[in-house]
Design goal:
Elements: H1 2-9, H2 13-25, H3 30-37, E1 46-50, H4 57-72, E2 78-84, H5 96-100, E3 110-116, H6 128-137, E4 143-146, E5 163-168, H7 175-181, H8 183-186, E6 189-192, H9 200-208, H10 211-222, E7 230-232, H11 241-258, H12 260-287, H13 291-302, H14 308-319
Parallel strand pairs: 1-4, 1-5, 2-3, 2-4, 5-6, 6-7
Helix pairs in contact: 1-2, 1-3, 2-6, 4-11
Length: 320
């Protein structure tokens, strides 16, 4: 265990890749390794990139990673986690985001990890939290996380990222849907990509009217006011990426100067602890469950003699 942790600290990409594979597959003693590495974490700026399918998120991440690396200079290491949708039957995924980011594949200072969502809601995989921790411990900063792009279920990234970039594009018909889904409420930076399209200015005007929603919510959560910038980009040519990078770095500075960085981390870590508690408590309860009694109750539920809520209450009371 300690040997792997040491290798990751020394920059061994193979050791990091193997740890992430163990995290994804829930194999071996990966949690002990993460516990060993945890004191080294907390330094990386986690940047979430979300939005509907077809908005050009992968291409945008590709350009943004390149620009951030240039800004940070020699020796900077950048991590990218790209979550792809997976088959509900096999659990497999095409992992096409890695294909789109092929430019970075030969760059030793950029570590790209594609992972399948495996049915996780909220646009990110269940293993994303721990993968980001592993990259953080290995010295990658910033860490870019691109979500699945399933549209209205993408808001989960806001509890993991320090800076959330919401990407929209003209012609997708998602202006109102984005606000409805809460995407604009989680945005720290709003991007209208594919700005070369004729409808781009109309999309910008429409979204500008909705931006106040997100600012009000962020102020309530963090107690500070950040005015969400709206940036036009054309990621296919990396146009507007310098402006976007300026806003990303400005938000990073704002988080530290305002004290919101610590509040973001508290929200994120609290949610992770709550999730682990739920998983552990459910696992303990399930291990003690009388399977015959459960099956009998399910028959009653199927016959509509009792409701699912009543069955759950009976099981909980009997296990106490």
């Amino acid at each position: 265990m300690k040997a792997i942790a040491d290798r990751i600290q020394e920059g061994d990409r193979l050791a990091l890749a193997r740890l992430i594979t163990a995290i994804e597959n829930d194999q071996g003693d990966y949690q002990e390794i993460l516990d060993e590495l945890y004191p080294l974490t907390g330094k990386a700026h986690v940047i979430g990139v979300t939005g509907p399918p077809g908005a050009g998120k992968s291409t945008l991440v590709n350009c943004l990673a390149r620009e951030l690396k240039q800004r940070k200079g020699k020796g900077a290491k950048i991590g990218i986690i790209a979550v792809d949708p997976s088959s509900p039957f096999t659990g497999g995924a095409l992992l096409g985001d890695r294909v789109r980011m092929g430019f970075h594949a030969i760059d030793a200072d950029i570590f790209i990890r594609s992972m399948a969502s495996r049915g996780a809601l909220g646009g990110i995989a269940l293993a994303t939290d721990n993968t980001a921790l592993a990259m953080d411990a290995a010295g990658y900063d910033p860490i870019l996380i691109e979500t699945v792009g399933a549209g209205q279920s993408e808001v989960e990234i806001a509890s993991l990222a320090h800076t959330t970039i919401v990407v929209e594009a003209p012609g997708l018909g998602d202006d109102v849907q984005a606000a409805k889904a809460g995407l604009l409420e989680i945005a720290d930076i709003l991007v209208v990509n594919k700005a070369e399209k004729p409808a781009a200015d109309t999309t910008v005007a429409s979204l500008e009217r909705m931006l106040a929603l997100g600012e009000e919510l962020k102020e309530k959560q963090l107690g500070v006011t950040w005015h969400v910038p709206l940036v036009k980009t054309s990621a296919i040519d990396c146009e507007g990426i310098e402006d976007l990078t300026d806003h990303v770095l400005a938000h990073h500075q704002f988080l530290h100067e305002s004290g919101a960085w610590e509040k973001c981390d508290l929200l994120r870590l609290s949610k992770q602890v709550h999730h682990l508690l739920r998983e552990s408590l459910f696992g303990s309860w399930k291990a003690q469950l009388d399977q015959k009694r459960y099956n009998d109750l399910m028959v009653e539920v199927m016959q509509h003699q009792i409701s699912p809520h009543q069955a759950a209450q009976i099981l909980l009371n009997e296990e106490r």
